[in-house]
Hints:
Order of helices and strands of chain A: EHEHEHEHEHEHEHEHEHHH
Number of strands of chain A: 9
Structural class of chain A: alpha/beta
Distance between the termini of chain A: 44 Å
Oligomer: homodimer
CATH class of chain A: Alpha Beta
Shape of chain A: globular
Number of helices of chain A: 11
CATH topology of chain A: TIM Barrel
Strand content of chain A: 5-15%
Radius of gyration of chain A: 18 Å
Amino acid sequence: MHLIDNLQYANWSEKIFRQMREGGVDAVHVTICYHENFRETVANFSQWNRWFEQYPKLIVQGRNGNDVRLAKEQNRTAIFFGFQNPSPIEDDISLVEICHTLGARFMQLTYNNQSLLATGCYETKDTGITRMGREVIREMNRVGLVIDMSHSAEYSTLQAIELSERPIAITHANPAFWHPALRNKSDTVLKELAASGGMLGFSLYPHHLNNKSNCTLQDFCEMIAKTADLMGVEHIGIGSDLCQDQPDSVVEWMRVGRWTKNIDYGEGSASDAGFPPMPEWFVDNRHFGNIEAGLKQTGFSDEDCAAIMGENWLRFYDDNFTPGNASPDA
Amino acid sequence: MHLIDNLQYANWSEKIFRQMREGGVDAVHVTICYHENFRETVANFSQWNRWFEQYPKLIVQGRNGNDVRLAKEQNRTAIFFGFQNPSPIEDDISLVEICHTLGARFMQLTYNNQSLLATGCYETKDTGITRMGREVIREMNRVGLVIDMSHSAEYSTLQAIELSERPIAITHANPAFWHPALRNKSDTVLKELAASGGMLGFSLYPHHLNNKSNCTLQDFCEMIAKTADLMGVEHIGIGSDLCQDQPDSVVEWMRVGRWTKNIDYGEGSASDAGFPPMPEWFVDNRHFGNIEAGLKQTGFSDEDCAAIMGENWLRFYDDNFTPGNASPDA
């Protein structure tokens, strides 16, 4: 089995890279942009290049599905890059290919706010995919940069699924039927996502969990079982949203960026502004075994369990990270 | 035989790409930066991405030697990127790897002026490789970005050869013994270059030629024969410096960039400010056959002729475009 966590944003360190190895995590999709512009995002690619140089026995850059298989053989964790905001491409569609060449494999069309491409889930009106958004979806399809609608509003998400010629992903969110947070997704979205070959990554971020930090493993796994019934077991995986070791200043950056002079508490509140504590059964990369055990307890077969813990993402990586069919003019 | 021209800076067009195919040119190292900063250079990578998308039957991006072999099989020309100035990396050593990932394979440590890394051939004093220059040479060696000293001053060039752990290149220049232009190279430089495994690409730019635009093919080929005696036939190739279809405003940009408010005429003069006319036996990519015939006429064997026309560069590409040995910390 290949173990893949399709979203983390930790305060990266040798300690965490070693925990990935201890936990047998073969690949992680890591966020390298919340609000950064192109040049700032390049600096984040650079920081990862430095880590790859410093810790070659622990981590390696991943570019396609085979890099996950190779990393597993070499006892390393393959790191795939993603953006939670299209800010790195600024207003320049050519930066889609540039960022893909540098290793970006997922890009959200919006974070919580309206972007140049689509509407975020915190806006009151959702106008759907913009003119530039349609162009960027086509370009992302062409180069193999996956559309991620985790933080997008419902209509924008449904439109992205429809407009995209390749499957999209919701890398880190849960079903609203289980916990009706603004970030969690309706049955409609989940069904359309599955019908188009897309993937949902289940989030462990407490604001996305029923009973938040007190969510039980059993409750979480039963939710997965219900979602498997709704979407099909081949369309689900893990996208933990683990933000390990981050100071609370980072969650403020995620929420506020540079777009307001005020504090926006996002999914938190003035009295609960920081990162919430993780459920005790999932604190770091060594704890994926708890989820695997929980899934088996809930009645998943070994095969379905392996699919959810990583094989589904691996198939999705194989199919969606390389260029699609171009339309040559000459 | 693989035909490789290791430097051109044309006003690219479908016409020129078709001439490359007519001329059987398997690979070209193209300049994508004279004075551009990082972001401007990314725009130049983007422009090439657009051409690769528009003309997939004519050109393809090259990243290593095998891409030349593949391009030949596919009847396309492999395009390799290079910078004539280290301006794209600005003051940020991490941009060496970023630019290599985007496809850069040659970078001059200087254009004509002093840079952050070394001294250019138009400065009156040559202080050699700077503190940052030493760091950048090591980083270029690590990632597989070749040091090009075509426009550098003599002491800086000799120091670069000594400091670099991998062979360097002088992609486009001629021996000073034949035509003592400021840009042409001394016997000392050429011998050290060869002794370290480096390569010289012969320039067809008239200011680098004996009798300039009136240089004869025979004179050019006899110069190559003398240089082969000096350096060894395995260390020489072509780097035509063809600037086809460029308006004279471009040569002004090359010379002046943004570093002066005055006009610097470089190798030209006030009365001869523009691009000089090419020798009639080498006007565009269809004319490499003339050089090949001239070399045979001069007495080169078929094998040596093939080495000069491309096989030497191909061997150099095989050896120098991929990462060197890293020094892992963990």
